[in-house]
């Protein structure tokens, strides 16, 4: 009897936070990455139909929060631009934050969007110190190895540019969210670990600092997440590996695979 009572009074574990990461390429061609791709105009009628199909598919996840690659201050991290969002903006703003993040947030009736990006402030380190790796490779005569590390990603980028005219946005995003592909995986970062010797380890430092940036991004998500939340993260695909890692391994959080939603959207626009 006492055992039954004790079992009845056991605390109920809070509902886990469901996190789905939708990694994307940069629609607006900002040129901020080491390897950039030329992207066609996503405001055309055809691309807008594809993005509507994407929004419809992802809306089935029923996100209670949408978080994007924009830096905003805590504690709320609310993106003020979203307050003035209207469908008309989709005809002029090519950025993926607007085209995917805001579109889906509005579709499911959210009143706010959170910007959880992390950038170095004053006296903080560069989170992607590739210049140190490049200097090391040049000084040690290892430029060919560095070129080889980026060659696969560059080839994937050129293939993207070649195929995008006959490929829908959902289909392209399937590749960007596949960890086995150069654009969705971690191979490039880990291939840089070879650049180092003794106390000078620029490749390892770069990996550690890239991890740090993504850890801080996910920490901001944790700052505002509530038990039972269903969070959609719309972010550059290069962050996908670590953000999914944190969602899958942080106590109280579950990672939700975005692939079935992307495949549904792709099938709809074929």
Description:
The model has no long low-confidence stretch (mean pLDDT 93). This protein has ten helices and five strands. With 270 residues, the chain is of the alpha/beta class. It has one domain (15-269). It has helices spanning 2-8, 45-59, 96-107, 130-139, 143-163, 169-176, 187-191, 202-224, 240-249, 259-269; strands at 17-24, 65-68, 114-115, 230-236, 253-256. The longest helix is centred in the C-terminal third of the chain and has 23 residues, at 202-224. Strands 3-2-4-1-5 form a five-stranded parallel sheet. It starts with a helix and ends with a helix.
Give a summary of the structure in a few sentences:
With 270 residues, the protein is α/β, with parallel strands linked by helices. The protein has helices spanning 2-8, 45-59, 96-107, 130-139, 143-163, 169-176, 187-191, 202-224, 240-249, 259-269, and strands at 17-24, 65-68, 114-115, 230-236, 253-256. The termini are far apart.
What are the key terms here?
alpha/beta; globular; 10 helices; 270 residues; single chain; 45% helix; 9% strand; five-stranded parallel beta sheet
């Amino acid at each position: 009897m006492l055992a039954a009572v004790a079992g009845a009074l056991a605390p109920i574990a809070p509902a886990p936070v469901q996190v789905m990461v939708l990694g994307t390429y940069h629609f607006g061609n900002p040129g901020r990455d080491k390897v950039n791709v030329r992207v066609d105009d996503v405001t055309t009628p055809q691309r807008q139909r594809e993005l509507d199909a994407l929004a419809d598919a992802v809306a089935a996840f029923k996100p209670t929060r949408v978080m994007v690659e924009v830096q905003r201050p805590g504690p709320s991290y609310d993106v003020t631009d979203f307050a003035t969002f209207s469908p008309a903006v989709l005809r002029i703003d090519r950025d993926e934050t607007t085209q995917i993040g805001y579109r889906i947030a509005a579709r499911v009736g959210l009143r706010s969007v959170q910007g959880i990006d992390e950038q170095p402030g004053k006296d903080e380190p560069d989170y992607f110190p590739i210049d140190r790796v490049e200097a090391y490779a040049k000084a040690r005569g290892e430029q060919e190895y560095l070129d080889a590390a980026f060659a696969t990603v560059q080839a994937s980028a050129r293939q993207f540019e070649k195929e995008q005219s006959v490929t829908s946005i959902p289909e392209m995003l399937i590749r960007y969210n596949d960890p086995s592909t150069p654009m969705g995986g971690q191979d490039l970062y880990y291939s840089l670990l070879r650049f180092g010797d003794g106390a000078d380890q620029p490749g390892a430092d770069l990996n550690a600092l890239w991890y740090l940036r993504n850890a801080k991004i996910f920490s901001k998500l944790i700052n505002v997440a509530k038990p039972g939340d269903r969070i959609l993260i719309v972010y550059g695909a290069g962050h996908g590996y670590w953000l999914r890692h944190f969602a899958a391994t942080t106590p109280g959080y579950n990672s939700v695979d975005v692939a079935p939603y992307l495949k549904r959207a792709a099938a709809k626009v074929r």
